[in-house]
Amino acid sequence: MTIPQVLIIDDEADIRALLELTLGRMNIETRSAGDVASAFALLEEYRFDLCLTDMRLPDGDGLAIVRHIEEHHRGLPVAVITAHGSMETAIAALKGGAFDFVCKPLNINELRALVRSALNLSKQAPSDGASAAAKLLGDSQAIREVRALIERLARGQAPVYISGESGTGKELAARLIHDLGPRAGRPFVAVNCGAIPEQLMESEFFGHKKGSFTGAFNDKDGLFKTASGGTLFLDEVGDLPVPMQVKLLRAIQEKAVRPVGSQQEVAVDVRILSATHKNLHDLVRTGAFRQDLYYRLNVIELVIPPLRERAGDIPALAAHLAAKLSMGRPLPLTPAALAALKRYAFPGNVRELENIMERALTLCESGEIDVADLRLPGHDAPGLSGKVAASEASPFNASDYTGERSLEEHLVQVERAAIEKALRDTNQNKTAAARELGITFRALRYKLEKLGIE
Ligand SMILES: Nc1ncnc2c1ncn2[C@@H]1O[C@H](COP(=O)(O)OP(=O)(O)OP(=O)(O)O)[C@@H](O)[C@H]1O
Protein backbone atom coordinates (compact mmCIF):
# COMPACT_ATOMS: atom_id res chain seq x y z
CA MET A 1 0.00 0.00 0.00
CA THR A 2 1.47 3.37 -0.95
CA ILE A 3 1.73 5.99 1.76
CA PRO A 4 -0.43 9.07 1.04
CA GLN A 5 1.46 12.33 0.45
CA VAL A 6 0.05 15.64 1.66
CA LEU A 7 1.29 19.15 0.94
CA ILE A 8 0.87 21.60 3.85
CA ILE A 9 1.02 25.34 3.13
CA ASP A 10 1.04 27.75 6.06
CA ASP A 11 3.31 30.58 7.06
CA GLU A 12 2.95 29.87 10.78
CA ALA A 13 5.51 27.30 11.89
CA ASP A 14 3.30 26.21 14.82
CA ILE A 15 0.38 25.33 12.58
CA ARG A 16 2.67 23.49 10.16
CA ALA A 17 4.07 21.47 13.06
CA LEU A 18 0.57 20.65 14.36
CA LEU A 19 -0.58 19.49 10.93
CA GLU A 20 2.58 17.44 10.32
CA LEU A 21 2.14 15.74 13.68
CA THR A 22 -1.58 15.01 13.24
CA LEU A 23 -1.13 13.65 9.74
CA GLY A 24 1.99 11.72 10.71
CA ARG A 25 -0.06 9.87 13.31
CA MET A 26 -2.45 8.91 10.52
CA ASN A 27 0.52 7.34 8.64
CA ILE A 28 0.58 10.11 6.10
CA GLU A 29 3.77 11.67 4.73
CA THR A 30 3.88 15.45 4.52
CA ARG A 31 5.93 18.19 2.88
CA SER A 32 5.48 21.77 3.95
CA ALA A 33 5.76 25.20 2.37
CA GLY A 34 5.56 28.62 4.05
CA ASP A 35 4.52 30.63 0.99
CA VAL A 36 2.92 30.38 -2.45
CA ALA A 37 6.19 30.31 -4.42
CA SER A 38 7.68 27.38 -2.54
CA ALA A 39 4.32 25.58 -2.68
CA PHE A 40 4.31 25.86 -6.49
CA ALA A 41 7.86 24.50 -6.57
CA LEU A 42 6.91 21.47 -4.45
CA LEU A 43 3.85 20.86 -6.62
CA GLU A 44 6.15 20.77 -9.66
CA GLU A 45 8.56 18.35 -8.08
CA TYR A 46 6.38 15.86 -6.19
CA ARG A 47 3.11 14.05 -6.59
CA PHE A 48 0.55 14.70 -3.83
CA ASP A 49 -2.76 13.19 -2.79
CA LEU A 50 -4.03 16.26 -0.92
CA CYS A 51 -3.07 19.87 -0.38
CA LEU A 52 -3.97 21.77 2.81
CA THR A 53 -3.44 25.49 2.53
CA ASP A 54 -3.85 28.50 4.75
CA MET A 55 -5.76 31.41 3.18
CA ARG A 56 -3.36 34.19 4.14
CA LEU A 57 0.19 33.72 2.89
CA PRO A 58 3.04 36.24 2.67
CA ASP A 59 3.21 36.30 -1.15
CA GLY A 60 -0.43 35.64 -2.08
CA ASP A 61 -3.47 33.81 -0.82
CA GLY A 62 -5.01 30.34 -0.66
CA LEU A 63 -7.24 31.18 -3.62
CA ALA A 64 -4.15 31.46 -5.83
CA ILE A 65 -3.20 27.95 -4.74
CA VAL A 66 -6.73 26.68 -5.45
CA ARG A 67 -6.67 28.27 -8.93
CA HIS A 68 -3.17 26.96 -9.69
CA ILE A 69 -4.16 23.40 -8.73
CA GLU A 70 -7.42 23.63 -10.68
CA GLU A 71 -5.39 24.63 -13.75
CA HIS A 72 -2.26 22.50 -13.48
CA HIS A 73 -3.02 19.60 -11.14
CA ARG A 74 -6.66 18.79 -11.79
CA GLY A 75 -7.92 16.00 -9.59
CA LEU A 76 -5.72 16.92 -6.62
CA PRO A 77 -8.09 17.81 -3.77
CA VAL A 78 -7.22 21.08 -2.04
CA ALA A 79 -8.71 22.14 1.29
CA VAL A 80 -8.34 25.62 2.75
CA ILE A 81 -7.77 26.69 6.33
CA THR A 82 -9.65 29.88 7.15
CA ALA A 83 -9.74 32.19 10.12
CA HIS A 84 -12.80 31.65 12.29
CA GLY A 85 -15.75 33.69 11.07
CA SER A 86 -14.39 34.41 7.61
CA MET A 87 -17.08 32.48 5.83
CA GLU A 88 -16.87 34.67 2.74
CA THR A 89 -13.33 33.48 1.98
CA ALA A 90 -14.26 29.85 2.57
CA ILE A 91 -17.17 30.20 0.16
CA ALA A 92 -14.97 31.88 -2.45
CA ALA A 93 -12.53 28.96 -2.17
CA LEU A 94 -15.33 26.39 -2.55
CA LYS A 95 -16.62 28.23 -5.59
CA GLY A 96 -13.11 28.23 -7.02
CA GLY A 97 -12.94 24.44 -6.78
CA ALA A 98 -11.61 23.79 -3.25
CA PHE A 99 -12.64 20.44 -1.88
CA ASP A 100 -13.55 21.69 1.61
CA PHE A 101 -12.44 24.06 4.34
CA VAL A 102 -11.56 23.94 8.05
CA CYS A 103 -11.64 26.87 10.45
CA LYS A 104 -8.98 28.01 12.87
CA PRO A 105 -8.57 27.16 15.71
CA LEU A 106 -8.25 23.71 14.21
CA ASN A 107 -10.52 21.00 15.50
CA ILE A 108 -8.38 17.87 15.15
CA ASN A 109 -11.33 15.46 14.70
CA GLU A 110 -12.77 17.62 11.95
CA LEU A 111 -9.38 17.82 10.29
CA ARG A 112 -8.93 14.05 10.41
CA ALA A 113 -12.40 13.49 8.86
CA LEU A 114 -11.59 15.96 6.09
CA VAL A 115 -8.24 14.33 5.34
CA ARG A 116 -9.74 10.83 5.27
CA SER A 117 -12.52 11.93 2.96
CA ALA A 118 -10.12 13.73 0.60
CA LEU A 119 -7.75 10.76 0.44
CA ASN A 120 -10.69 8.56 -0.36
CA LEU A 121 -11.34 10.86 -3.30
CA SER A 122 -7.73 10.62 -4.53
CA LYS A 123 -8.03 6.84 -4.62
CA GLN A 124 -11.00 7.01 -6.96
CA ALA A 125 -10.54 6.68 -10.68
CA PRO A 126 -9.65 10.10 -12.12
CA SER A 127 -12.95 10.48 -13.95
CA ASP A 128 -16.18 8.69 -13.46
CA GLY A 129 -17.66 10.82 -16.19
CA ALA A 130 -18.84 7.82 -18.15
CA SER A 131 -21.03 6.67 -15.31
CA ALA A 132 -22.47 10.15 -14.86
CA ALA A 133 -23.18 10.35 -18.56
CA ALA A 134 -24.86 6.96 -18.42
CA LYS A 135 -27.43 8.19 -15.94
CA LEU A 136 -28.07 11.83 -16.81
CA LEU A 137 -28.96 11.36 -20.43
CA GLY A 138 -29.05 13.87 -23.24
CA ASP A 139 -26.87 15.25 -26.01
CA SER A 140 -27.72 18.95 -25.78
CA GLN A 141 -24.98 21.43 -24.93
CA ALA A 142 -26.95 22.45 -21.82
CA ILE A 143 -27.05 18.94 -20.36
CA ARG A 144 -23.38 18.36 -21.24
CA GLU A 145 -22.54 21.42 -19.17
CA VAL A 146 -24.72 20.15 -16.31
CA ARG A 147 -22.89 16.79 -16.45
CA ALA A 148 -19.48 18.48 -16.41
CA LEU A 149 -20.47 20.66 -13.43
CA ILE A 150 -21.84 17.63 -11.56
CA GLU A 151 -18.51 15.86 -11.99
CA ARG A 152 -16.67 18.87 -10.64
CA LEU A 153 -19.08 19.40 -7.74
CA ALA A 154 -18.89 15.72 -6.82
CA ARG A 155 -15.22 16.13 -5.99
CA GLY A 156 -15.85 18.87 -3.44
CA GLN A 157 -17.84 19.17 -0.25
CA ALA A 158 -19.53 22.50 -0.90
CA PRO A 159 -23.28 22.76 -0.37
CA VAL A 160 -25.01 22.78 -3.75
CA TYR A 161 -28.42 24.25 -4.45
CA ILE A 162 -30.09 22.64 -7.44
CA SER A 163 -32.75 24.71 -9.14
CA GLY A 164 -35.08 23.80 -11.97
CA GLU A 165 -38.71 23.18 -12.80
CA SER A 166 -40.50 20.13 -11.50
CA GLY A 167 -39.38 16.89 -13.15
CA THR A 168 -36.18 18.27 -14.71
CA GLY A 169 -33.95 15.77 -12.89
CA LYS A 170 -32.89 17.64 -9.73
CA GLU A 171 -32.96 14.59 -7.49
CA LEU A 172 -31.12 12.55 -10.12
CA ALA A 173 -28.43 15.26 -10.24
CA ALA A 174 -28.14 15.22 -6.43
CA ARG A 175 -27.69 11.45 -6.45
CA LEU A 176 -24.98 11.72 -9.07
CA ILE A 177 -23.11 14.36 -7.07
CA HIS A 178 -23.16 11.91 -4.17
CA ASP A 179 -22.36 8.78 -6.18
CA LEU A 180 -19.42 10.30 -8.01
CA GLY A 181 -17.80 11.76 -4.89
CA PRO A 182 -15.85 10.47 -1.90
CA ARG A 183 -19.04 9.88 0.10
CA ALA A 184 -20.32 7.35 -2.44
CA GLY A 185 -20.10 4.39 -0.07
CA ARG A 186 -22.06 6.23 2.62
CA PRO A 187 -25.79 6.97 2.82
CA PHE A 188 -27.64 9.29 0.48
CA VAL A 189 -30.73 10.47 2.37
CA ALA A 190 -33.36 12.40 0.42
CA VAL A 191 -36.08 14.22 2.32
CA ASN A 192 -39.04 16.10 0.94
CA CYS A 193 -39.22 19.08 3.30
CA GLY A 194 -42.80 19.81 2.28
CA ALA A 195 -43.99 16.37 3.33
CA ILE A 196 -43.04 16.45 7.03
CA PRO A 197 -45.70 17.76 9.47
CA GLU A 198 -44.39 20.92 11.11
CA GLN A 199 -44.65 19.63 14.69
CA LEU A 200 -42.53 16.56 13.84
CA MET A 201 -39.87 18.37 11.88
CA GLU A 202 -37.30 18.92 14.59
CA SER A 203 -37.45 15.29 15.67
CA GLU A 204 -37.30 14.08 12.05
CA PHE A 205 -34.18 16.13 11.33
CA PHE A 206 -32.32 15.89 14.62
CA GLY A 207 -33.82 12.80 16.33
CA HIS A 208 -35.29 12.59 19.82
CA LYS A 209 -34.83 10.98 23.21
CA LYS A 210 -37.29 8.47 24.57
CA GLY A 211 -40.06 10.24 26.54
CA SER A 212 -39.18 13.70 25.23
CA PHE A 213 -42.78 14.17 24.02
CA THR A 214 -46.00 12.14 23.93
CA GLY A 215 -45.47 9.29 21.54
CA ALA A 216 -41.65 9.28 21.81
CA PHE A 217 -41.51 5.66 22.98
CA ASN A 218 -37.87 5.10 21.99
CA ASP A 219 -34.76 7.06 21.15
CA LYS A 220 -34.80 7.95 17.47
CA ASP A 221 -32.01 8.96 15.10
CA GLY A 222 -32.79 11.98 12.96
CA LEU A 223 -32.08 12.41 9.27
CA PHE A 224 -28.72 14.10 9.97
CA LYS A 225 -27.55 11.09 11.96
CA THR A 226 -28.87 8.66 9.35
CA ALA A 227 -26.97 10.52 6.63
CA SER A 228 -23.79 10.56 8.71
CA GLY A 229 -20.66 10.45 6.55
CA GLY A 230 -22.88 10.81 3.49
CA THR A 231 -25.24 13.30 1.91
CA LEU A 232 -28.52 14.84 3.04
CA PHE A 233 -30.63 16.02 0.13
CA LEU A 234 -33.22 18.60 1.19
CA ASP A 235 -35.81 18.50 -1.56
CA GLU A 236 -38.37 21.31 -1.71
CA VAL A 237 -36.27 23.21 0.81
CA GLY A 238 -38.41 26.31 0.17
CA ASP A 239 -41.24 24.57 2.07
CA LEU A 240 -39.36 24.62 5.39
CA PRO A 241 -41.15 26.75 7.98
CA VAL A 242 -39.09 29.71 9.21
CA PRO A 243 -38.49 28.41 12.80
CA MET A 244 -37.08 25.22 11.30
CA GLN A 245 -34.88 27.23 8.95
CA VAL A 246 -33.20 28.80 12.00
CA LYS A 247 -32.48 25.39 13.52
CA LEU A 248 -31.24 23.98 10.25
CA LEU A 249 -28.85 26.90 9.76
CA ARG A 250 -27.43 26.32 13.20
CA ALA A 251 -26.92 22.60 12.55
CA ILE A 252 -25.13 23.32 9.27
CA GLN A 253 -22.94 26.02 10.80
CA GLU A 254 -22.01 24.11 13.91
CA LYS A 255 -21.81 20.72 12.14
CA ALA A 256 -23.68 19.40 15.17
CA VAL A 257 -27.28 18.58 16.14
CA ARG A 258 -29.13 18.32 19.41
CA PRO A 259 -31.83 15.62 19.50
CA VAL A 260 -35.17 16.74 20.98
CA GLY A 261 -35.09 16.11 24.73
CA SER A 262 -31.30 15.83 24.87
CA GLN A 263 -28.90 18.20 26.60
CA GLN A 264 -26.00 17.26 24.39
CA GLU A 265 -25.02 18.18 20.89
CA VAL A 266 -23.81 15.40 18.61
CA ALA A 267 -21.27 16.14 15.89
CA VAL A 268 -22.45 15.26 12.39
CA ASP A 269 -20.50 15.03 9.17
CA VAL A 270 -23.03 15.48 6.38
CA ARG A 271 -22.83 17.13 2.97
CA ILE A 272 -25.94 19.21 2.30
CA LEU A 273 -27.52 19.35 -1.14
CA SER A 274 -30.84 21.12 -1.60
CA ALA A 275 -33.38 21.79 -4.30
CA THR A 276 -36.70 23.36 -5.03
CA HIS A 277 -38.78 24.04 -8.10
CA LYS A 278 -39.79 27.36 -6.52
CA ASN A 279 -37.80 30.54 -6.92
CA LEU A 280 -35.87 30.60 -3.66
CA HIS A 281 -34.58 34.08 -4.32
CA ASP A 282 -38.17 35.34 -4.49
CA LEU A 283 -38.95 33.58 -1.21
CA VAL A 284 -36.00 35.42 0.36
CA ARG A 285 -37.35 38.73 -0.94
CA THR A 286 -40.78 38.11 0.53
CA GLY A 287 -39.30 37.00 3.85
CA ALA A 288 -40.54 33.40 3.56
CA PHE A 289 -36.97 32.12 3.41
CA ARG A 290 -34.10 33.32 5.56
CA GLN A 291 -31.31 35.02 3.69
CA ASP A 292 -28.56 33.61 5.90
CA LEU A 293 -29.74 30.04 5.24
CA TYR A 294 -30.09 30.84 1.55
CA TYR A 295 -26.42 31.88 1.37
CA ARG A 296 -25.37 28.80 3.32
CA LEU A 297 -27.22 26.39 1.04
CA ASN A 298 -26.56 28.22 -2.18
CA VAL A 299 -22.75 28.25 -2.15
CA ILE A 300 -22.89 26.85 -5.66
CA GLU A 301 -26.03 26.75 -7.78
CA LEU A 302 -26.64 24.03 -10.33
CA VAL A 303 -29.37 25.06 -12.74
CA ILE A 304 -31.15 22.32 -14.65
CA PRO A 305 -32.90 23.87 -17.65
CA PRO A 306 -36.43 22.80 -18.62
CA LEU A 307 -36.70 20.06 -21.23
CA ARG A 308 -38.29 22.41 -23.81
CA GLU A 309 -35.03 24.42 -23.83
CA ARG A 310 -32.98 21.34 -24.62
CA ALA A 311 -35.03 19.48 -27.20
CA GLY A 312 -31.76 17.89 -28.35
CA ASP A 313 -32.00 15.61 -25.31
CA ILE A 314 -35.36 14.17 -26.35
CA PRO A 315 -34.15 11.45 -28.79
CA ALA A 316 -31.73 9.94 -26.26
CA LEU A 317 -34.22 10.22 -23.40
CA ALA A 318 -37.12 8.78 -25.41
CA ALA A 319 -35.03 5.86 -26.70
CA HIS A 320 -33.75 5.14 -23.19
CA LEU A 321 -37.24 5.27 -21.71
CA ALA A 322 -38.66 3.08 -24.49
CA ALA A 323 -35.99 0.48 -23.71
CA LYS A 324 -36.40 0.79 -19.94
CA LEU A 325 -40.18 0.68 -19.88
CA SER A 326 -40.74 -1.96 -22.55
CA MET A 327 -38.91 -4.72 -20.69
CA GLY A 328 -36.81 -6.01 -23.54
CA ARG A 329 -39.25 -5.13 -26.32
CA PRO A 330 -38.24 -1.57 -27.15
CA LEU A 331 -40.27 0.05 -29.88
CA PRO A 332 -38.73 2.69 -32.13
CA LEU A 333 -40.35 6.08 -32.55
CA THR A 334 -41.35 7.18 -36.03
CA PRO A 335 -39.62 10.35 -37.25
CA ALA A 336 -42.99 12.12 -37.02
CA ALA A 337 -43.43 11.06 -33.39
CA LEU A 338 -39.94 12.28 -32.54
CA ALA A 339 -40.61 15.58 -34.31
CA ALA A 340 -43.87 16.00 -32.36
CA LEU A 341 -42.04 15.36 -29.07
CA LYS A 342 -39.40 17.91 -29.97
CA ARG A 343 -42.09 20.52 -30.58
CA TYR A 344 -43.99 19.80 -27.37
CA ALA A 345 -43.44 22.14 -24.38
CA PHE A 346 -43.26 19.48 -21.60
CA PRO A 347 -44.55 21.47 -18.61
CA GLY A 348 -43.79 18.35 -16.51
CA ASN A 349 -40.33 17.93 -18.06
CA VAL A 350 -38.59 14.54 -18.07
CA ARG A 351 -41.14 13.04 -15.67
CA GLU A 352 -43.88 13.92 -18.15
CA LEU A 353 -41.87 12.39 -20.99
CA GLU A 354 -41.64 9.21 -18.91
CA ASN A 355 -45.42 9.15 -18.52
CA ILE A 356 -46.00 9.85 -22.20
CA MET A 357 -43.67 7.04 -23.23
CA GLU A 358 -45.23 4.61 -20.79
CA ARG A 359 -48.70 5.32 -22.15
CA ALA A 360 -47.47 5.14 -25.74
CA LEU A 361 -45.91 1.73 -25.15
CA THR A 362 -49.17 0.48 -23.71
CA LEU A 363 -51.32 1.90 -26.49
CA CYS A 364 -49.10 1.17 -29.46
CA GLU A 365 -50.50 -1.60 -31.63
CA SER A 366 -47.91 -1.55 -34.37
CA GLY A 367 -44.18 -2.12 -34.32
CA GLU A 368 -43.35 1.55 -33.79
CA ILE A 369 -44.57 4.43 -31.70
CA ASP A 370 -46.32 7.04 -33.78
CA VAL A 371 -47.68 10.52 -33.05
CA ALA A 372 -51.16 9.28 -32.16
CA ASP A 373 -49.74 6.81 -29.61
CA LEU A 374 -48.13 9.71 -27.74
CA ARG A 375 -51.52 11.35 -27.03
CA LEU A 376 -49.85 14.72 -26.67
CA PRO A 377 -52.15 17.44 -25.36
CA GLY A 378 -53.33 19.48 -28.32
CA HIS A 379 -52.76 16.57 -30.75
CA ASP A 380 -56.24 15.05 -30.83
CA ALA A 381 -56.28 11.59 -32.34
CA PRO A 382 -57.88 12.07 -35.73
CA GLY A 383 -61.41 10.63 -35.77
CA LEU A 384 -64.40 10.92 -38.04
CA SER A 385 -64.02 14.66 -38.50
CA GLY A 386 -60.58 14.00 -39.93
CA LYS A 387 -62.07 11.60 -42.44
CA VAL A 388 -64.80 14.00 -43.47
CA ALA A 389 -62.31 16.79 -43.84
CA ALA A 390 -60.09 14.57 -45.95
CA SER A 391 -62.86 13.55 -48.33
CA GLU A 392 -64.18 17.10 -48.57
CA ALA A 393 -60.77 18.37 -49.43
CA SER A 394 -60.03 15.53 -51.81
CA PRO A 395 -59.01 16.78 -55.22
CA PHE A 396 -60.72 13.79 -56.84
CA ASN A 397 -64.41 13.29 -57.52
CA ALA A 398 -66.23 10.62 -59.48
CA SER A 399 -66.75 13.22 -62.17
CA ASP A 400 -62.97 13.56 -62.53
CA TYR A 401 -62.85 10.29 -64.37
CA THR A 402 -62.60 11.18 -68.05
CA GLY A 403 -61.98 7.69 -69.48
CA GLU A 404 -58.51 8.63 -70.78
CA ARG A 405 -56.92 5.81 -68.77
CA SER A 406 -58.21 2.56 -67.36
CA LEU A 407 -60.42 2.71 -64.29
CA GLU A 408 -57.81 0.66 -62.46
CA GLU A 409 -55.06 3.19 -63.22
CA HIS A 410 -57.34 6.00 -62.22
CA LEU A 411 -58.13 4.31 -58.88
CA VAL A 412 -54.41 3.82 -58.17
CA GLN A 413 -53.89 7.54 -58.75
CA VAL A 414 -56.78 8.39 -56.42
CA GLU A 415 -55.44 6.03 -53.80
CA ARG A 416 -51.92 7.48 -54.04
CA ALA A 417 -53.18 11.05 -53.80
CA ALA A 418 -55.38 10.24 -50.80
CA ILE A 419 -52.55 8.49 -48.95
CA GLU A 420 -50.05 11.26 -49.68
CA LYS A 421 -52.53 13.84 -48.47
CA ALA A 422 -53.25 11.90 -45.26
CA LEU A 423 -49.51 11.62 -44.57
CA ARG A 424 -49.07 15.31 -45.15
CA ASP A 425 -52.01 16.14 -42.90
CA THR A 426 -50.61 14.05 -40.08
CA ASN A 427 -47.01 15.10 -40.43
CA GLN A 428 -46.05 11.66 -41.77
CA ASN A 429 -47.65 9.89 -38.80
CA LYS A 430 -48.65 6.56 -40.32
CA THR A 431 -50.93 5.46 -37.50
CA ALA A 432 -52.84 8.74 -37.66
CA ALA A 433 -52.87 8.66 -41.46
CA ALA A 434 -54.29 5.13 -41.42
CA ARG A 435 -57.02 6.31 -39.08
CA GLU A 436 -57.77 9.27 -41.29
CA LEU A 437 -58.08 6.93 -44.27
CA GLY A 438 -60.24 4.48 -42.31
CA ILE A 439 -57.85 1.56 -42.85
CA THR A 440 -55.60 -0.41 -40.50
CA PHE A 441 -51.97 0.47 -39.99
CA ARG A 442 -50.97 -2.82 -41.57
CA ALA A 443 -53.11 -2.10 -44.63
CA LEU A 444 -51.53 1.32 -44.99
CA ARG A 445 -48.03 -0.12 -44.73
CA TYR A 446 -48.90 -2.65 -47.42
CA LYS A 447 -50.26 0.07 -49.72
CA LEU A 448 -47.20 2.26 -49.15
CA GLU A 449 -44.95 -0.59 -50.21
CA LYS A 450 -47.14 -1.43 -53.20
CA LEU A 451 -47.24 2.18 -54.37
CA GLY A 452 -43.58 2.78 -53.60
CA ILE A 453 -44.32 5.70 -51.24
CA GLU A 454 -41.59 6.29 -48.67
N1 LIG B 1 -31.34 13.63 -18.01
C1 LIG B 1 -32.04 12.56 -17.54
N2 LIG B 1 -31.71 11.32 -17.94
C2 LIG B 1 -32.43 10.25 -17.51
N3 LIG B 1 -33.47 10.32 -16.68
C3 LIG B 1 -33.83 11.53 -16.24
C4 LIG B 1 -33.12 12.71 -16.64
N4 LIG B 1 -33.68 13.77 -16.02
C5 LIG B 1 -34.70 13.28 -15.28
N5 LIG B 1 -34.78 11.94 -15.40
C6 LIG B 1 -35.80 11.07 -14.77
O1 LIG B 1 -37.00 11.84 -14.69
C7 LIG B 1 -37.69 11.61 -13.47
C8 LIG B 1 -37.85 12.92 -12.71
O2 LIG B 1 -36.56 13.33 -12.26
P1 LIG B 1 -36.31 13.88 -10.76
O3 LIG B 1 -37.20 13.19 -9.79
O4 LIG B 1 -34.85 13.86 -10.52
O5 LIG B 1 -36.86 15.37 -11.00
P2 LIG B 1 -36.97 16.57 -9.98
O6 LIG B 1 -36.50 17.77 -10.70
O7 LIG B 1 -36.29 16.20 -8.69
O8 LIG B 1 -38.55 16.64 -9.77
P3 LIG B 1 -39.41 17.39 -8.61
O9 LIG B 1 -39.11 18.85 -8.72
O10 LIG B 1 -40.82 17.11 -9.00
O11 LIG B 1 -39.00 16.75 -7.33
C9 LIG B 1 -36.87 10.57 -12.73
O12 LIG B 1 -37.39 9.28 -13.00
C10 LIG B 1 -35.48 10.70 -13.33
O13 LIG B 1 -34.75 9.51 -13.23
UniProtKB/TrEMBL annotation:
SUPFAM superfamilies: CheY-like, Homeodomain-like, P-loop containing nucleoside triphosphate hydrolases
Stretches assigned to coiled coil: none
Species: Acidiferrobacter thiooxydans
PANTHER family: RESPONSE REGULATOR PROTEIN PILR, TRANSCRIPTIONAL REGULATORY PROTEIN
The entry's keywords: ATP-binding, DNA-binding, Nucleotide-binding, Phosphoprotein, Transcription, Transcription regulation
Keyword Lyase carried by entry: no
Start and end residues of each Response regulatory domain: 5-119
A GO molecular function held by the record: sequence-specific DNA binding
A single BP term in Gene Ontology: regulation of DNA-templated transcription
Name of the protein: Sigma-54-dependent Fis family transcriptional regulator
Chain ranges of the Sigma-54 factor interaction domain: 136-362
InterPro entries, per database record: AAA+_ATPase, AAA_lid_NorR, CheY-like_superfamily, Homeodomain-like_sf, HTH_Fis, P-loop_NTPase, Sig_transdc_resp-reg_receiver, Sigma_54_int
4-aspartylphosphate: residues carrying this PTM: D54
Family matches, as SMART domains: AAA, REC
Entry keyword Transcription regulation: yes
UniProt xrefs under PROSITE patterns: RESPONSE_REGULATORY, SIGMA54_INTERACT_2, SIGMA54_INTERACT_3, SIGMA54_INTERACT_4
